[in-house]
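input
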Amino acid sequence: MSNQQKEPGCLVNRVELYEKCYHFELERKERIRESTSMPFGVAVLLFGVTAYLAQRSHEITTGFTALVYGIAICVTLVALVYTVVKLLYSNQYYKYLALPTPDEIERYWMQLVQYYENNPDADGNPNKDFEEYLIQAYSEINSHNDWANCQRAIDLRKAHRALVIALVAAVIAFIPAHYDQAQSLVQLMKSDQIQVEGVMTTHEQREEAFPTAKTKTASSKGD
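output
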């Protein structure tokens, strides 16, 4: 008798527990969805950076820098495509289960009530069967939604890792894309310095070759 009295209370606690799990998985779903917005933005930004770097490919003349640049650009593009695919897959592929509609739940409850009214000698009662129905529904839904959230979280982590790889590869591609330009700038600065030093040397040589002109100019100013 005591066991029968404790059983309904136990069932009620299970329903409350599964209900909390149900709402927890829905909140987790929204958190994962919000977590995909920033990686999407970074991926779009990196696509723009990659397009900019691709426009500078004709300025790369050195064989080694061209090789490094080509590998880095390819890795960047592959990682970005993988990132976008994983993010879209995480947002669109996995489906979630929901509780039956209120009409369906009410219809099932009325069927239970009608059944026990038509069968007064049947074991059980509509309240107990209805609680078991809710427990079974919550259990199946929570298990599926938990699996979907876990898979989405795994895809999101993979997208983050691919995004980091794309970022590092873009930085590596940026170096050879501007290496030759930096070398040309250094050469130009060196040539300008050589020209300036040449002009100064020519002026000094001229002063050494014609010292009298300098002396005459000084003496004429004194007169």
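quick obs: Residues 6 and 79 are 57 Å apart (CA to CA).
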